[in-house]
Amino acid sequence: MTTDTRRALVVRGGWDGHHPVTISDSFVPYLEDHGFTVETSEDLAVYDDAERLATTDLIVQCWTMGTITREQSANLAAAVRAGTGLAGWHGGIVDCFHDHGYHLLTGGKFVMHPPGYLDHGYEIVPERAGHPVVAGLDDFTLHSEQYWVLTDPHIDVLATTTFPPDELHDRPAVMPAVWTRTWGRGRVFVSTIGHKPDDFDVPEVRTLTERGLLWASR
User: Fold this and answer.
1) Cα angle 88-26-129, degrees, rounded to a multiple of 5
2) For residue 18, what pLDDT is reported?
3) Residue 153 and residue 107 in contact, taking contact as beta carbons nearer than 8 Å
4) Please, which residues have CB within 8 angstroms of residue 80's CB and are 6 or more apart in sequence?
5) N or C: which end of the chain has fewer CB within 10 A?
6) Name one Pfam family in it (predicted).
7) Domain 6-216 listed as CATH 3.40.50.880
């Protein structure tokens, strides 16, 4: 169900270290400029309202280290399966709930990151360089956290990051960093980038995140 004005719901909270309000607020004007009415919720109880989720065109999730109930997870997955978009970045979408159904929906789960911030690169996958989320973008570097994740083989990886060999790993590890997937009639966009607000000052990070929100929306 859609109207001439699309509806976006920003669900934010959990651990304050990921700046859920500051960073999600920075994307609200962009969504409004692209025809969305934007509502925010700082309570996961919004996922209890299956009807509200079903009539929302885009859910932007920005919630780290929370607890979702089985019913809430099922409602979210059902809404996406019916056409609601789901999008998010960093821990707000991959380091949030210990729920298998939720991780099947998003296609990935945070495992670890090296201590502190480090300089590291992100590479656009050549075969996906024409995808609307990353079209025209070059590889880029960032000084921030670098996420090691476990992912579903059915995701469409748009960009990767490489971990060098270390005392535990005898060869480099190429890790999915930005991906999309479909779930029934819905679309999901995930970026592992975005630990701190100034990560989004990097033009490529801002651009691919904005595009990912639009791509995921119904």
Assistant:
1) 50
2) 96
3) no
4) 59, 86, 105, 183, 184, 186, 187, 188
5) N
6) ThuA
7) yes
